[in-house]
Design a protein that fits this description.
Distance between the termini: 39 Å
Shape: elongated
Helix content: 40-55%
Low-confidence stretches: none
Strand content: 15-25%
Strand order of the largest sheet: 1-2-4-3-5-11
Number of strands: 12
Mean pLDDT: 97
Structural class: alpha/beta
């Protein structure tokens, strides 16, 4: 009797694990945890992979909620990147529960063919994608060392092969002024909130003078204590985005001048804390072509011209892509008109369409790794990194 093909074995393993993967997705969805606090989510993922005979290291890279689960000892090392942090208020409105479950499913699928294809399979749990740059921290501490290709999918309204992923950086802004009675002694105060207003006006005017690929947005997180007390402290969290890290640096200089203008106009003292920058994502063309073929074989389509597309966002997977061949396609969950970061999208990540995306994503990623392992030219390129 003929032996099953590697892709057939992988698909069968993913299908057998599907109910467990749905359970993982829904547990994470029902218990949203913010970045670096994903204790339950990372624990559930680790437990699932241990039951699938992976060797699991918890707390890797000095991050309590990071993990690396390994199977096989082959020369070609493939990493499936799992995310599981949520957003404040709207929970899993970016569908990280689906990302986590599909990565686990792809790892389990590949474990069945790792020996045959000469693979080392790793599922890497990467905390705090939503602003904490968990992947960059894991890169710095060597967790991705030796990886030849890094794969993941991300849910959105529709399938999209190569979304535009911008470089980004968060800026934490503080203005320090002087409190005083707002009616009796206004001349003795220095209004920190006014400084923030001046900066926001300047940024609003700057927006009309930057390319369409650049973004500037943010929120005021503190603006005072009482209306009759001149605010002595104002804080804000702002983000800037651009096509590349180099463009981001140039944009940052212009934005910083806006914040300096607020300090100059008001007399408040300005403090700026620059967070870790997210790089633009470089899609590996060879792997992307293979993923498309495999996703289309599962009934996925990338030719939809209508409907909202998940694009012009940022992710710390971009940092990985600058050093490791990476793919980050969008997998559709039929959520339209709901889009990412809306409460309606949160609800859409635990529907039948979302559950199907978990299986399709797991199989498509596993098949992509299998094709990469069997394509002599591509395998040679990946191993030569």
């Amino acid at each position: 009797m003929d032996q099953p093909e590697p892709k057939q074995i992988a698909r069968q393993r993913a299908e057998r694990a599907h109910e467990s993967l749905i359970g993982l997705s829904r547990w994470i969805h029902a218990n949203p945890e913010l970045g670096f606090a994903e204790v339950q989510a990372s624990g559930w993922l680790a437990d699932l992979l241990e039951r699938a005979s992976f060797q699991v290291e918890r707390g890797v890279g000095g991050l309590e909620t990071a993990l690396a689960a390994h199977f096989g000892e082959g020369p070609l090392h493939v990493a499936l990147m799992a995310e599981y942090d949520a957003l404040p208020e709207v929970g899993h409105a970016c569908g990280h529960n689906i990302i986590c479950a599909s990565a686990a499913g792809a790892g389990i699928a590949l474990a069945g063919v790792a020996g045959t294809l000469g693979l080392r399979v790793s599922v890497i749990g990467t905390p705090a994608e939503e602003g904490g740059a968990g992947k960059e921290l894991l890169l710095r501490t060597g967790v991705f060392d030796g990886v030849h290709l890094a794969l993941m999918i991300h849910p959105g309204p529709n399938d999209l092969l190569e979304p535009t992923v911008l470089a980004a950086q968060s800026l934490l802004i503080s203005y320090h002024g002087q409190p005083a009675h707002a009616a009796a002694f206004p001349e003795r105060g220095i209004n920190a909130a006014d400084a923030m207003v001046v900066a926001q006006v300047a940024i609003g005017l700057l927006r009309q003078a930057v390319p369409a690929s650049q973004r500037i947005h943010g929120i005021v997180t503190h603006g005072g204590e009482a209306p009759n007390v001149i605010p002595a402290l104002a804080r804000g969290h702002f983000m800037i985005r651009a096509s590349t890290l180099e463009e981001l640096e140039a944009l940052k200089e212009r934005v910083l001048r806006c914040f300096e203008a607020g300090a100059l106009a008001s007399g408040a003292r300005l403090e700026i804390e620059e967070q870790i920058a997210y790089a633009e994502l470089v899609h590996d063309t060879g792997l992307t072509v293979i993923y498309r073929r495999n996703a289309e074989a599962l009934g996925r389509s990338f030719d939809k011209a209508d409907g909202p597309q998940m694009t012009n966002f940022s992710t710390d997977a971009g940092n990985v892509s600058r050093v490791i061949p990476t793919i980050h396609p969008i997998i559709g969950i039929d959520s339209a008109p709901a889009v990412n970061h809306q409460p309606e999208f949160t609800a859409a990540t635990v529907t039948d369409a979302a559950d199907r995306a978990i299986l399709d994503g797991a199989v498509a990623l596993a098949w992509t790794a299998i094709d990469a392992a069997q394509d002599e030219e591509l395998r040679r390129r990946l191993l030569s990194r």
